[in-house]
Design goal:
The protein is α/β, with parallel strands linked by helices. Helix content is 32%, strand content 16%. It has an eight-stranded mixed beta sheet with strand order 1-4-3-2-5-6-8-7, with helices on both faces.
């Protein structure tokens, strides 16, 4: 499929997330520093622009990731704009479109895009090495149904996603922000969930997963309280076949941690 050249949207500063599986030790693992979140949270990337669900830090990019950003970025990374994204134009076809928030290194994202060729996927991530890594997967697997956006998902949702336009939303292992004083940075909160739900088409789904039990409980409470959403399960849901285990999740399972999936649908 021929794609128009797009301006390169990634920032000059290289960045990595505060909690992502690939970068930060699990705070529950033996020997992990308990204060990593505190340190990160004290240095917000955008101090004047409100509370963010992520913190950017300087990070290393592999040479393959740098090359992918240069050569594939203009083709597959959509620029952030304060105007609605035209999915048909972005993908060159009309198909149900699913948004993923915080894809990390993108392994699960690529696997899902392979497993569901009939659907379009827009993956959002602020972390440059992760964007580079997923661009590499796009090329290796010749994926035509995946586009990326490197920007704060809260703003992307607000500015670029039209109400009632999404077939689904994936939020897999969002940063747990373990410390009580940082819980306000969690993505899954009432206001954002209302916004997410408004972007779903009737019958569209919101699928969240976490391995942090207090966050799972918060998700269940917040999603359950959103009147426009209906739970597909009696509480937590079984993991759908098409959601592969992420590296992060596999590591947690080996350490004996639980995993909680939640699947809600938009009422008509
Ligand atoms: C703990 S990692 C999980 C990554 C991946 N979903 C997985 O399961 O391996 C959470 C990711 O969400 C990203 N993230 C957090 N808040 C975000 C936001 N507002 N917009 C875009 N990405 C965000 C972080 O950069 C990080 O890579």
């Amino acid at each position: 499929m021929g794609l128009p050249a797009l301006p390169t949207p990634w920032p000059a500063a290289r960045a990595e997330p505060s909690h992502c599986s690939e970068m930060t030790p699990d705070p529950r693992a033996e020997g992990a520093p308990a204060s990593a979140e505190d340190d990160a949270a004290d240095k917000p990337a955008y101090p004047r622009r409100g509370i963010r669900s992520f913190v950017l830090r300087a990070g290393r990019m592999g040479s393959g990731q740098v090359k992918a950003m240069e050569t594939l970025g203009p083709l597959y990374v959509l620029p952030y704009r304060t105007e609605r994204l035209d999915f048909d134009a972005a993908f060159g076809r009309h198909a149900p479109t699913v948004l993923e928030i915080g894809f990390g290194m993108g392994d699960a994202t690529a696997q899902i895009a392979v497993a569901r060729p009939q659907d379009n996927f827009v993956g959002i991530e602020v972390h440059t090495p992760g964007v580079g890594a997923l661009l590499q997967r796009i090329e290796e697997r010749r994926l035509t149904n995946l586009r990326l956006l490197q920007h704060d998902a809260v703003e992307v949702l607000r500015d670029m996603i039209a109400p009632g336009s999404l077939a689904g939303v994936h939020v897999y292992f969002p940063d747990p922000w373990h410390k009580k004083k940082h819980n306000k940075r969690r993505l899954i909160q009432a206001e954002f969930v209302r916004e997410l739900s408004s972007r779903l088409a009737p019958g569209g789904y919101l699928h969240c997963a976490t391995d942090w039990q207090p966050y799972a409980e918060q998700m269940l409470q917040v999603l359950g309280a959103e009147p426009t959403l209906a739970n597909t399960a009696d509480g937590y849901a079984p993991r759908p076949d098409w959601r592969p285990l992420t590296k992060f999740e596999n590591r947690g399972i080996k350490l004996g941690h639980g995993v909680w999936d939640l699947v809600f649908t938009r009422r008509s």
